[in-house]
Amino acid sequence: MRRTRLFHLFIAVFGLALFAGAAHADKPSVIRLAYPGVGVGNRPFSGGNSVATVHLKGLLEEEFKRDGIKVEWVFLRGAGPATNELYANGLADFSLLGDLPSIIGRSSGLKTRILAATAIRGNTYLAVPADSSIQSIKDLKGKRVGFQKGTNIQLAVNKILQAHGLAEKDIRAISMDSTALRLALVTKDLDAVFWLNDLLALRDQGIAKIVYSTANDPRYLRHCSFVGSDDFIRKYPEITKRVVKQVVIAAKWLSDQEANPQTAYQLWTKSGVRFADYKEDNKGVSLKVLSSPLIDPYLVSQYKIQVSEAKRFGLIKNPFEVEPWIDTSFLNEALKELGLENYWAPVPASGAVKNSS
């Protein structure tokens, strides 16, 4: 009789332990987010998109405060390649990630999922010293040209060069992070730099001139998406849904600023990029379109093109199908919960949208 009671007591205690373990497994102690870049002067801030806005507004910290879940952000000078390293070593749960680095990661076997759109339709600028004789892309032949390899800038550069009769082998390509690129342009250790809208400040200081921009050449726009670790997503699907929901909330807030984007631009200046640079970079483009989290036909078609182009330029060895990589289930749930199922219009594969000035 005593043995029976002891046996039942053991089963009860064992069951409680299993229940406690299962309950613990439903909630991580920390959510780790990687951001592939840093602000001006290595600031741990960025701007220009919904994920940066989630960080700047502290949305995830507020969302998970009641659960006792810590939110950790890391901003990486090594950009996309450094973000892939974190995923490879199990040190990142979510990130914004550019099309090329995310494609490289997927091609090499990293188990990630694309969960939402963010930082789409990004421009690329080509800056040269103010007194440079370089006036066009064709003038780059044999020149020292800086950009950060392994990022979506590299794929854009390869396509831009090809459209002007050049290839990466025709220039002296030098890979540097954002801080080093700006400094090398100032010191004239580089003849030209392909980079982002923060180059506009160097132009306005009289240090550099912009000789090319994809703002006038939308064939070579860059895209990013909100990516998650497959392992984390499988372990914590409810947490994943709540994370994606905050990205959608940030995208909605940005979209609501479309008619008067000053508040968004001012928030983003914490990155060190000027208000004027965001304004110029987004001129003639709908902030609602730029902020849409939808993985629509346009974005899917763009990723398919990028996979093909990455293979053609020798940036990946193993092409793959894009659709199995995409998981819209969490995004769709978030849109439904927030009543936003029809708020953003899906963009067709052609990319044609009605832009506002």
Can you put this structure into words, describing what you see?
The protein is α/β, with parallel strands linked by helices and 357 residues long. The protein folds into two domains: 210 residues, Periplasmic binding protein-like II (D-Maltodextrin-Binding Protein, domain 2, 3-Layer(aba) Sandwich), CATH 3.40.190; 96 residues, D-Maltodextrin-Binding Protein, domain 2 (3-Layer(aba) Sandwich). Helices cover 43% and strands 17% of the residues. The chain has a five-stranded mixed beta sheet, with helices on both faces. The chain has a five-stranded mixed beta sheet with strand order 7-6-8-5-9, with helices on both faces. Helix 6 links the parallel strand 6 and strand 7. Helix 2 crosses helix 10 and helix 5 packs across helix 14. The protein is globular and about 60 Å long. 44% of the residues are buried.
Task: Provide a concise account of the structure shown.
The protein has 357 residues and is of the alpha/beta class.
How are the SSEs ordered, and which strands pair?
Elements: H1 2-25, E1 30-35, H2 50-56, H3 59-64, E2 70-75, H4 79-88, E3 94-98, H5 99-107, E4 112-122, E5 125-129, E6 144-147, H6 152-163, E7 172-175, H7 178-186, E8 192-195, H8 199-204, E9 208-213, E10 222-229, H9 230-235, H10 237-256, H11 262-268, H12 275-281, H13 287-291, H14 297-312, H15 329-337
Parallel strand pairs: 1-2, 1-3, 6-7, 6-8
Antiparallel strand pairs: 3-10, 4-10, 5-8, 5-9
